[in-house]
Structures are given as structure tokens and as C-alpha cells.
Write the C-alpha cells for this entry.
Amino acid sequence: MRQSGNILLSFISVTLIILCSCASHKSLNYPKPSDRARQIGIASWYGSDFHGRKTSSGETYNMYALTAAHKTLPFSTYVRVTNLENKRSVKVKINDRGPFIKGRIIDLSYTAAKNLDMIGSGTAKVKVEIVKKAKDQDVTYTLQVGSFKEKRNAFKLKRELGSKYKDVYIVTSNTLPTTYYRVRIGHFKSDEEAIKAAKRLRMDGYTVFQTRRD
């Protein structure tokens, strides 16, 4: 009986090792961020305060058009956004950069948000799927480390970063009546390079957002 018990325990141990090994191996097979055709996260929207102003792509923002801001997708990419709470969907064109709030993956125009029935709530959990890629796929990335209303604060951070890192610069964004000074670092030709640099910055205590360098 003791021998049978030992055999049973050995069988259970081997089975657990195999299962754990399979689970560990599976976790290594997730697609790289640059390869993902789908994202799940929080969407927000922007409206009248930005209506008629220039977007990051140079187009004029029209709150009644079906457009959106995304951190990294090339301009003129079309995506389908689905509200996971009510299953309503809308197709939008990426023509702006943002949102730069942690946890949010896309910023929709007023009309796009209205179609998803998320005007009242302001945000919603969504699925973003690429339906038409832009012709120009030559994407380079940068990392945003800070965004300030006060210019002196932006230059203070720029000097601080400049003592440790290369290619630190400031981008001015005019969202009247406020001008934002965004401190960014780097020019990365691949998603992997940007992720590696972001990891180092986070280890040094900085909050980092990855975006496209246009």
C-alpha cells in the first residue's frame, strides 16, 4: 500500500510540473504590442472645447465627425470601437494623439461617443479593432514623461532628464485657452526599443506614456 501511495504521489507531482510548464510556456506567446490588431481598455471623449482647432495630424477637429485620438496608431488608420457594456460599435478615423491619462487607450469625438452611448458616463470599457490600416506604416515612437501648464516646470524636468538621458525635448500643444508643454524623450524605431527605454525610466521613478513621434 505504501508503494502504491508513493507511485500515486509521484504521478501527481509529474502532472503538476507538466501543467505548470505548459502554463509558463503559454504566457510567453502573447503577441507583441506592435502586432496587436485589437486593444481592450478605457475610452473617453472630447467635444466643444476643442471643436475647430488643429489636431496632431494637422486636420481641424470636428466634434461631429467620426474621429479619434490614439497614442500610437498611424494617422488615417480606421478602427472599430465597441462599447463592451452595451455592445454598440462605431468606426472612426485616427487623426489625433492621446489620451495621455493612464489606463485610457482612445479619445473619441463627441459624435463617436454619442453613438456608443457614453456621453453621460464620460468613459467606457471598449474594444478597439483595426479595420483599415494607413498606407504609411513607417511608425516611430517617443516617450512622454510630463505635461505642464507652466513652461518653467517643463524646462526643469527637461534639464533633469538631460543629465541622464539623450534626446530630451519639449512639444508645445495649444488647447485654448491653455497651452501645455509636454516633455518627451527618444526616437525609437520599434515598439521593443520604446518599451525597454520606458522600463528604465519607470525604474528611475518617472511616469511614462508611449506615443508616436510625428
Remarks:
- The helical segments are 2-27, 110-115, 151-162, 191-203.
- The first strand starts at residue 38 and ends at 46.
- The radius of gyration is 22 Å.
- Confidence is low (pLDDT under 50) at residues 1-35.
